[in-house]
Amino acid sequence: MSFEPVLSCPTVPLSNGLQIPIVGLGALYFGTSHYGGYSHDSIMYALTECGVRHIDTAKRYSCEEKLGKAIRESGVVRSDLWLTNKLWPGDYTYKAAKKACLDSCSLMGVEYFDLYLMHWPESSQPHCSNREMRADTWRALEELYKEGVCRAIGVSNFLIHHLEQLKEDSSVIPHVNQVEYHPFQQPNHLMEYCRQEGIVFEGYSPLAKGQVLSNPTVLQIAEKHRCTPAQICIRWSIQNGVVTIPKSIKKKRIQENCQVFGFQLEGADMAALGRLHDGRHVTWDPTNVG
Predict the structure, then answer these.
(1) How far apart (Å, rounded) are the C-alpha atoms in residues 18 and 74?
(2) What's the whole-number mean pLDDT along residues 176-183?
(3) What is the mean pLDDT of residues 35-53?
(4) Catalytic residue among 61, 92, 116, 181
(5) Residue 94 parent element (H or E)
(6) Rounded to whole angstroms, how far apart are CA atoms 92 and 123?
């Protein structure tokens, strides 16, 4: 199978008309992460050799300045890049959220983010309810959106009741909801709700932190298509219409994760992978957040 860079990957329309690339490069384990360390070479390789044009990071990963430097050094024109950042709950409230977003822009050396997300539905502030805090913080994101500092705004790890409350408490429905998504974790009711509301569904941890790569069903389908298990999982995700952000710090894996547009999974393959759902979370579980 020939190498096709992410640069030519399809896009998914947001409700405001913007087009988000259906495959991006996630931050954890990639080098913009507090877990995986920082890898300037990996970022440069992704941008210059693999044609990656969708990068997902967060203030929580503590290297916005370094990532911004790598983006500038890559020579990629800012308007050709989709850049997502996320607001940590420690910066919730209207005033703190606006400051945090502008500070992140300054650290990264950019004038705007293509997408800015509330990272988690639970507040770390003790003086009001989670719902009140989400509404107050979202008001700041709405203003940042209207001011053009954020071209789109959204949420991460929000469930249906969180989204329903936010819809009642605000005027702008999130453009994106980014949640854990892989064959073992398929929140189909949430996906359907998002589609009905015009919210683009974005999935992180598409490889279940490696747990899915040794699954017999995945291995069998990978052998059938002469692909790697990771490619099968990413392909399954995007064929389900999910914006997908795999993560890796290894150049070979970054390239591999880009090579998912030269083949198609058959209906039987999709169904077999769909039956792997067992409800497990490999990251945070927002189920009990009110």
Answers:
(1) 24
(2) 98
(3) 84
(4) 61
(5) helix 94-108
(6) 7
> Is the pLDDT assigned to residue 136 strictly greater than 90?
yes
pLDDT attached to residue 27: 59
Q: Give yes or no for a contact between 121 and 130, defined as CB atoms under 8 angstroms apart.
A: yes
State the angle between helix axes of 160-169 and 188-197 in degrees (0 to 180), rounded to the nearest 10.
20
Q: Is 61 a catalytic residue?
A: yes
Q: Which two tokens stand for residue 152?
A: 């789109």
CB burial readout 168-196, b (16+ within 10 A) else e: eeeebebbbbbbbbbbbbbbeebbebbee
Q: From residue 174, how far is each of 54, 155, 203 by CA, in Å? A: 19, 7, 15
Please report which helix (H) or strand (E) contains residue 42, including its range.
helix 40-48
Q: Which of 79, 87, 150, 142 is nearest to 113 (CA)?
A: 150
Helices (H) and strands (E) in the chain, counts: 10, 9
Q: Which of 52, 51, 53, 108 is nearest to 85 (CA)?
A: 108
Q: Which amino acid is at 34?
A: H
